[in-house]
Each structure stands twice: as C-alpha cells, then as structure tokens.
C-alpha cells in the first residue's frame, strides 16, 4: 500500500477534479502491474495497472489507494474492470466520498466474490486525498499556505526588497510544491508588487497549475507576466461585484477566466472564493500570499496546511510582516497547527504544519 500511495502522489496537481490514485497488483509475491491516475483524471490507476498485469491479474491482489469507482462516467467502472480481470482480492484504505461511488464499489466487488480489505494505511491515504474529499463533502479545495520569511518572520525590508530571503534550494522546493497542487493563489497586492509568473520552473516539462489571483477591483497590471501569458497558462481572477466593467472586458480579452465572488466587509468572501474554485474543479490550492490574503484565510479557518521556509537572517521591526492583522487578543483565539516535518533545505529550514 505504501508503494501504491507513492504512485498516486505522482498525479497530485495533474488529475483534478478526480483524485490522484495509485494501484499495485501483486501475484505470487511479485508486482505484476502498477498504475496511477493520468493527467486530467484519466485513465484511472486500476485500468493502467491491469493493462500492465495482463492475464497474470487472474487470482492476484490489487492494492488501490481509494475505493474503485462504481459508476459510468467517461470510462466504465474500475470495480467492473477488476472483476473482469479475475482479481481475487482488493486492499484499499478508504471509501470514496463521491456519492456516486461511496461504498458501492466495495459492494460490487464483494457481490462478485472478491475479498475486500479496508483500513490499510487509512490515515496516510486520507491526507493524500484530503482535497478530493473536502471538495466532495464541503465544496472547497484544501489550502496549503506557504510563507518564506526571515528568522523574525518578515517577508521584505521596509523598502519592499524581498529577493531573495531564502536560498535557491528552498525556491526549487517551492516550485515542486506548486507542481503538486492544482492551482497557485495570490492576492492582488502580491501580483502588483512582484509581477510573479507563478509557474513551475526547473522541473522539466510538467503540467502548469492554474494561476489564481484574488483581486476585488481587478486592479492588476495589464502588461504584467500574468496578462502576457494568460493564453498559455490559465489565469483565473476572483473579483468582487464592484469590479469595473472595462477591467472585466480587458482581462477576458487577454484570455483570463473571471470568477465573481461576494464581499465580506470590504474584502472578497474567502469561503465563497474557495467554494467557487471547488465548483470549478480544483481540489488542491497553494497560496503564496500576500499577507492580507494569508491572514484572511487563517482568520476564516480555511488553511489546512502551513509550509514555512525560514532563513537565517533578521530584518527587524521595520521589515514587512508575513501576515496581515488577525485581530487576536488572546492566545486561545490564535489558529494552531500540528508540526508534521522539519528539515534543512540548503541554508534554510522548512517546516510543515497540519491543521490541529
């Protein structure tokens, strides 16, 4: 199952709105077939592994990281494919949360005489499929918030200089994290100040994540990198109801997709924004700031994972903080996360935190 989970992770950021599933088929103590969900969600992991196994799949065990599908979509049910191939046993950690499948895949396998074992490495699988489950159950994708800061939590000097606080090794890891998510999200302030490309670089030819900007008034540079490349790599802009009509026309003309969101006070409603991204199919969103957007997501309890990169330099109180105001008076009100990993990345330290 650990091998199947590792295979499934190869599809992260590439399979939405489908889950990134891995499958390993074993017969006589030997791996005879492996597969993972293809780009765009098809082909499914089970059919790929079955194709590799061929006739040797008869009587074999299939380790699948999620309940095999049981409904007819653009492809026939994977449960039926496993039965037709003569698979004797299926091991899976979790039920699929999609109501079209939930429990029905396992039921169909058992009705056909296939031995079904569940619960194996369920916690690991739940973490891998968290975005798919959250979108299915609550309508929104998971959010990973990334912060790259000085030792004292600053993202720039008082004059705005920020390149580069962390080293090249840390930046390479960030590009890998982008690649494992469906979309990269930033606020309008970051888009204006940094003119970011928000693409994956240095990892070869990989599918690019959707680039999402939260900009209430659509006040973004029309000659910036995002505007110039909107027809090459998708740009989605979440805007408010008061965004000027001429700005909407301009960005649509450049090839951007516009998503209207309601306001909460003077800002875009964060939950509604994420629900809109979930409705569009996204399951995993990688937020790279800025401070106002990050604080808004934290205050709304919409951050599922924190990834921090801390450099060994200090910028002092006059430096720009990594987060905007949260309005916290008591420690008990502060959002808390559970430490999952700490490791050195070049001259910097990376730390990952999961929702407590």
TrEMBL record:
InterPro entries per the UniProt record, alphabetical: APOBEC/CMP_deaminase_Zn-bd (IPR016192), CMP_dCMP_dom (IPR002125), Cytidine_deaminase-like (IPR016193), DHFR-like_dom_sf (IPR024072), Eubact_RibD (IPR004794), RibD_C (IPR011549), RibDG_C (IPR002734), Riboflavin_Biosynth_HTPR (IPR050765)
Protein name as annotated: Riboflavin biosynthesis protein RibD
Residues given in the record as substrate binding sites: 162, 178, 198, 201, 288
EC number(s) reported in the record: 3.5.4.26, 1.1.1.193
Domain CMP/dCMP-type deaminase span(s) in chain numbering: 1-109
Cofactor binding summary note: Binds 1 zinc ion.
PROSITE patterns per record: CYT_DCMP_DEAMINASES_1, CYT_DCMP_DEAMINASES_2
Key word Metal-binding present: yes
Chain sites annotated for binding Zn(2+): 44, 69, 78
PANTHER family in the record: 2,5-DIAMINO-6-RIBOSYLAMINO-4(3H)-PYRIMIDINONE 5'-PHOSPHATE REDUCTASE, DIHYDROFOLATE REDUCTASE FAMILY PROTEIN (AFU_ORTHOLOGUE AFUA_8G06820)
Pathway(s) the chain acts in: Cofactor biosynthesis; riboflavin biosynthesis; 5-amino-6-(D-ribitylamino)uracil from GTP: step 3/4; Cofactor biosynthesis; riboflavin biosynthesis; 5-amino-6-(D-ribitylamino)uracil from GTP: step 2/4
Residue numbers annotated as active site: 46 (proton donor)
Cofactor: Zn(2+)
Entry binding sites for NADP(+): 148, 164, 190, 194
Superkingdom to which the source organism belongs: Bacteria
Function summary: Converts 2,5-diamino-6-(ribosylamino)-4(3h)-pyrimidinone 5'-phosphate into 5-amino-6-(ribosylamino)-2,4(1h,3h)-pyrimidinedione 5'-phosphate.
């Amino acid at each position: 199952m650990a091998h199947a989970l590792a295979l499934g992770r190869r599809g992260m950021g590439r399979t939405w709105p489908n889950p990134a599933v891995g499958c390993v088929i074993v017969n006589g103590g030997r791996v005879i077939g492996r597969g993972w969900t293809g780009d765009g969600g098809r082909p499914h992991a089970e059919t790929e592994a079955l194709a590799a196994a061929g006739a040797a799949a008869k009587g074999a065990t299939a380790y699948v990281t999620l309940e095999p599908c049981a409904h007819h979509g653009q492809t026939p049910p994977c449960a039926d494919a496993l039965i037709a191939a003569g698979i004797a046993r299926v091991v899976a950690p979790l039920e699929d949360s999609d109501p079209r499948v939930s429990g029905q895949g396992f039921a169909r396998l058992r009705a056909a005489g296939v031995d079904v074992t569940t619960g194996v490495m369920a916690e690991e699988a739940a973490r891998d499929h968290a975005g798919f489950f959250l979108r299915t159950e609550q309508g929104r994708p998971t959010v990973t918030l990334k912060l790259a800061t000085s030792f004292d939590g600053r993202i720039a000097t008082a004059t705005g200089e920020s390149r580069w606080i962390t080293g090249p090794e840390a930046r390479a890891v960030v590009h890998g994290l982008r690649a494992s998510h469906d979309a990269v999200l930033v606020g309008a302030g970051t888009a204006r100040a940094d003119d970011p490309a928000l693409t994956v670089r240095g990892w070869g030819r990989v599918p690019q994540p959707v680039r999402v900007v939260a900009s209430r008034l659509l006040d973004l540079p029309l000659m910036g990198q995002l505007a110039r490349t909107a027809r090459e790599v998708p740009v989605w802009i979440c805007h408010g109801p008061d965004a000027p009509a001429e700005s909407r026309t301009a960005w649509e003309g450049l090839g951007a997709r516009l998503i209207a969101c309601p306001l909460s006070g003077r800002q875009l409603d964060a939950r509604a924004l994420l629900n809109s991204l979930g409705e569009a199919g996204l399951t995993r969103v990688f937020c790279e700031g800025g401070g106002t957007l990050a604080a808004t997501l934290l205050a709304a309890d919409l951050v599922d994972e924190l990834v921090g990169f801390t450099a060994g330099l200090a910028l002092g109180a006059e430096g720009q903080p990594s987060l905007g105001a949260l309005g916290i008076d008591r420690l008990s009100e502060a959002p808390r996360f559970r430490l999952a990993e700490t490791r050195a990345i070049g001259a910097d330290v990376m730390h990952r935190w999961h929702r407590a």
